[in-house]
Specification:
2 copies of one chain form a homodimer. Chain A is α/β, with parallel strands linked by helices and 321 residues long. Chain A folds into 3 domains: 2-44, 434 Repressor (Amino-terminal Domain), CATH 1.10.260; 55-154 and 281-305, 3-Layer(aba) Sandwich (Rossmann fold); 156-279 and 310-320, Response regulator (Rossmann fold). Chain A has 12 helices and 12 strands. Chain A has helices at 2-8, 12-19, 27-40, 46-53, 69-84, 98-110, 126-133, 158-170, 186-198, 212-224, 235-247, 281-296; strands at 58-63, 88-93, 115-118, 138-141, 152-156, 176-180, 203-207, 229-232, 257-261, 275-278, 304-307, 309-311. Chain A has a 6-stranded parallel beta sheet with strand order 2-1-3-4-5-11, sandwiched between helices. In chain A, strand 6, helix 9 and strand 7 form a beta-alpha-beta unit. The radius of gyration of chain A is 25 Å and the shape is elongated. The A-B interface holds A 41, 43-48, 50-51, 56, 66-67, 69, 72-73, 75-76, 79, 88, 90-91, 93, 106-107, 109-112, 133-134, 212, 239, 242-243, 246, 264-266, 268-271 and B 41, 43-48, 50-51, 56, 66-67, 69, 72-73, 75-76, 79, 88, 90-91, 93, 106-107, 109-112, 133, 212, 239, 242-243, 246, 264-266, 268-271. The first copy, chain A, binds a DNA duplex (30 and 30 nucleotides) through helix 2 and helix 4. Chains A, B: InterPro entries: HTH_LacI, Lambda_DNA-bd_dom_sf, Peripla_BP/Lac1_sug-bd_dom, Peripla_BP_I.
Amino acid sequence: MKDVAQHAGVSTATVSRVLNGHAAPTPETRERVLAAIEKLGYRPNALARSLRTTSTQTLGLVISDLLNPFFAEIARAVEDEARSHGYCVVIGNADESAEQEATYVRTLLDRRVDGLLLCPATDDPSLVREVSAGGVPLVLLDRTVRGATCPVVRADGSEALTALARRLVGAGHTRIGVIAGPPNTSTGRERTDVLTGSLGGLAQVVHGDFRQESGSQAAAKLIDDGATALVAMDNLMGLGALGEVRARGLQIPHDIALAVFDDQPWFPLLDPPITVIAQPTVEMGRAAARSLLALINGRQPDDVRLTAKLVLRGSLGEAEL
Amino acid sequence: MKDVAQHAGVSTATVSRVLNGHAAPTPETRERVLAAIEKLGYRPNALARSLRTTSTQTLGLVISDLLNPFFAEIARAVEDEARSHGYCVVIGNADESAEQEATYVRTLLDRRVDGLLLCPATDDPSLVREVSAGGVPLVLLDRTVRGATCPVVRADGSEALTALARRLVGAGHTRIGVIAGPPNTSTGRERTDVLTGSLGGLAQVVHGDFRQESGSQAAAKLIDDGATALVAMDNLMGLGALGEVRARGLQIPHDIALAVFDDQPWFPLLDPPITVIAQPTVEMGRAAARSLLALINGRQPDDVRLTAKLVLRGSLGEAEL
DNA sequence: CATACATGTGTAATCGATTAACTACGGTCT
DNA sequence: AGACCGTAGTTAATCGATTACACATGTATG
């Protein structure tokens, strides 16, 4: 910057003013400064600028797993929305581990992100409190924690789940295997509660960890126990369950019915296509980013609750008639 | 930091030494400082530290599309490797757009990442030159550019592609539709050249843009032209092609054979499972991160060339016998 | 013609860390 | 006792920007 100033025959203050679009500098001065910048290939140091202004124009996003397309889509939407407001997003991968999640959150805070979007790995509120105590704007996404005091953006699957339950029961299924998420996550618990509630005593629950492998294992156990229908509570466990069903040579929906929470681009391509409960991922991501930006700008956004929808495709068999 | 120093009755220099594990401070002083840090909940400002040390312990990774599982896996691997060396990764999504790619690269440079990993959207070397001119360590990943002067990490699919070609020809296919990547990307061009080369005059090429929609369109065109086998040059176009095949009610492999470049967890679950050329994504990501770290540490790593493998699963029909 | 005021630019403090150079202190050795 | 040395800790410069305040110049006003 000093070099630029020297080249243009002005002070660094003036260079800074030109850079920041202040009204002060003469068009002629501005011209000279811009020429010098161009000539020297100068690029301002964002670190220094942020240090001085205490604003990084950056949002932190901590998610459980980038390989999970559900989170990848959310990340993508967050990024789009943030970018359109001049913000950058730094993504942290927590790998469904509370410890790694905490590490990432702290790293992001150390780098002074202007705000944080968090999909908490567990419903333990201590990390959330730590962030809030630091005074950093925080919005929870997809999942919440016990006694959360910050805005939350999530999808409500209750309606879709009860509709699904009604169809399964109506089709005469009496042993319905539920491949549930971890009970210490809000989404894991809530979805399972709603579904088992609507299924009366027909549900048999096995808990997984939102990963493919656990989906296979849970499916195996449930099939062994005589389940005639499976409901996987997220797409990775759905993938695992599907693998197990195929490995056993069972036909969907003839031998067993299957429904999955979360949609995937390839679900319609299976034979039969898989019936799902689709979450509005893009909307969730955008809404979360907007809420966070609002918070950063001193407004107090409301919680956002979007609706997940049941998409019938055929993998339930007669239940879909 | 000043507060901590005051609390512990020392100067900020001493606090800094404790923080950075210098030998100087007495165990007793160290103890006092740590206590003060704990008590005040002090966390060092990474921006200030980086400004002073000119090192951010951060790598930039610019990829074409986070929603493409191929890149998501790479990102994940890069991150793992980087983290194990105490580095953070900031991911930028270029969306297969050269312009957005350039924007992201510049943003990352402005933030003074210690090194940059780039999957170039096109083979135009100007952006690469710009980065190199800035003296920032740079490694290219998956794709290269014309006259690249920096280390490159990529997968070689030639062997797998010729093997695939041999099988298709051997099975008597005479009209083989190739859904190619953009000709201005190195991977797009090379893969297509190798395959069409080995297919003699039997190949019919339609170019897509590495996205699902273009895969459907290309497949439609090729099927209309009487192709009896399709080869999609990346997984998203493969997904599109598969959709088109299904939409027309064609049976794989009876009516048409299909092979896809890039593997996906759900390909084995289709009926029949899809034959693919699998790239070692995790190895690619790790290798790229390692090369970049080497470069940052003043070493001069060699190019890395890993091997993609043909995985036969059944979607080629008799060609797989 | 002096005074007030607007305007464009420069000076220097500041953000929060690191670190070279210096000081103070105590202990050894002749 | 005096010279010398090692060690623990302080002072202050520095990284590269922003910005309050001061200053100089030019124009309008009484």
